[in-house]
């Protein structure tokens, strides 16, 4: 053809199978995809078909109709192509993706290539902007601040026996995957979990616990003081009316502080809706410690804690409230209060 237009024969020629699929710029809810195809295919392709599925889907018949689009139909654009919003991608989730190139015919049918090889990739954690959205939602639920004086940790006798065998140090353990799937601390940050919520009528820690009949109590100032950095890490519920807020306490300059500084929103110790420290007003007075009243705080302290810094005592209430434990608990994806728009 001398006029630069493709002949009918060229238009009907088979399309090459896309190859060398590459995924880049992956976030918690988006990615960019690029592949190789001959210049003649680049010139005539009108659409791309993209098939995306979670990796755990091992159905051998995933591409049931190889001659029609199965998932997303996108108009052909210069590569790499941004993919976001189409599937409500979840953070930190493994996906499989394959592509086809296509030419839309005058009759509306498509001439399509073979499917490319299947490529696997994993989405990322929540970025700081997403955690800020989660923080803004958590602030609405926090409620008024109540005074408290101790952090506490409930466990079974076997746990404390083990701690005593290890030099009486409660050592940091890797955070499990409970709560929001995209929280950057899940499976990555080590710490020792403490509670600080109190009962309305007594101002003391609750008499009951789902975690065990023995309680380690430590004066609040050991974990919360001007030498500590405070971070917001998560906000979630587990199909219940009450919500959890996960906070991280890390000594300034520590490994935990360094990890959190670029990943989590930092909170002002003296002014935030969840957990506050105020210097003594007069000589001889104690600092003032307050916690949010309408959420359950889970406080992760990133350094070892020695039993000699506090005391271990039997609690007076029950300790079989298993429904309140949160180990690897999954967040309710339908809750309007604690979900943001970038996956679960």
3D structure, described in words:
This protein has 5 helices and 22 strands. About 3% of the residues have low confidence. A hairpin with a 5-residue loop joins β6 and β7. The chain has a 6-stranded mixed β-sheet. The chain folds into 2 domains: 115 residues, Sandwich (Immunoglobulin-like); 197 residues, no CATH class. It has 344 residues and is mainly beta.
Percent strand: 25-35%
Helix proportion range: 10-25%
pLDDT averaged over residues: 86
Determine the number of helices (DSSP H or I, runs of at least 4 residues): 5
Largest sheet: 6 strands, mixed
What is the molecular shape? elongated
What's this model, at a glance?
This protein is mainly β and 344 residues long. Helix content is 12%, strand content 32%.
Reconstruct the topology from this structure.
Blueprint: H1 8-12, E1 19-24, E2 30-36, H2 39-44, E3 47-54, E4 72-75, E5 81-84, E6 94-104, E7 110-112, E8 119-122, H3 128-141, E9 145-147, E10 150-155, H4 157-165, E11 169-170, E12 173-174, E13 190-194, E14 214-219, E15 228-236, E16 244-251, H5 255-261, E17 266-267, E18 275-278, E19 288-292, E20 296-301, E21 305-306, E22 311-314
Parallel strand pairs: 16-20
Antiparallel strand pairs: 1-2, 2-5, 3-4, 3-6, 6-7, 6-8, 9-19, 10-14, 11-21, 12-13, 13-20, 14-22, 15-16, 15-17, 18-19
């Amino acid at each position: 053809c001398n006029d630069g237009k493709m002949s009918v024969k060229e238009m009907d020629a088979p399309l090459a199978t896309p190859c060398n699929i590459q995924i880049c710029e992956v976030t918690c809810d988006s990615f960019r995809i690029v592949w190789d195809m001959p210049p003649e295919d680049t010139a005539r392709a009108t659409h791309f078909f993209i098939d995306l599925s979670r990796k755990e889907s091992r159905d051998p018949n995933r591409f049931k109709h190889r001659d029609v689009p199965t998932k997303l139909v996108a108009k052909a654009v210069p590569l790499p192509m941004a993919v976001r919003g189409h599937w409500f991608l979840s953070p930190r989730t493994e996906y499989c993706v394959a592509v086809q190139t296509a030419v839309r015919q005058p009759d509306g049918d498509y001439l399509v290539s073979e499917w490319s090889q299947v490529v696997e990739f994993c989405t990322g954690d929540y970025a700081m902007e997403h955690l800020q959205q989660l923080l803004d939602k958590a602030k609405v639920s926090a409620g008024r601040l109540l005074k408290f004086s101790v952090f506490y940790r409930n466990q079974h006798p076997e746990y404390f026996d083990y701690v005593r065998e290890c030099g009486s140090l409660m050592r940091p353990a890797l955070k499990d995957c409970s709560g929001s799937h995209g929280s950057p601390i899940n499976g990555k940050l080590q710490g020792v979990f403490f509670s600080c919520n109190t009962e309305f009528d007594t101002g003391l820690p609750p008499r009951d616990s789902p975690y065990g009949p023995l309680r380690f109590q430590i004066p609040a100032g050991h974990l919360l003081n001007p030498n500590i950095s405070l971070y917001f890490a998560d906000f979630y519920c587990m199909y219940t009316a009450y919500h959890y807020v996960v906070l991280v306490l890390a000594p300034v300059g520590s490994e935990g502080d360094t990890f959190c500084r670029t990943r989590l929103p930092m909170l002002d110790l003296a002014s935030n809706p969840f957990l506050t420290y105020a210097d003594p007003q007069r000589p001889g007075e104690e600092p003032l410690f307050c916690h949010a009243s309408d959420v359950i705080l889970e406080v992760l302290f990133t350094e070892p804690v020695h039993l000699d810094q506090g005391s271990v005592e039997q609690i007076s209430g029950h300790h079989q409230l298993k429904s309140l434990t949160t180990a690897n608990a999954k967040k309710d994806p339908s809750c309007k209060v604690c979900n943001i728009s970038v996956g679960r």
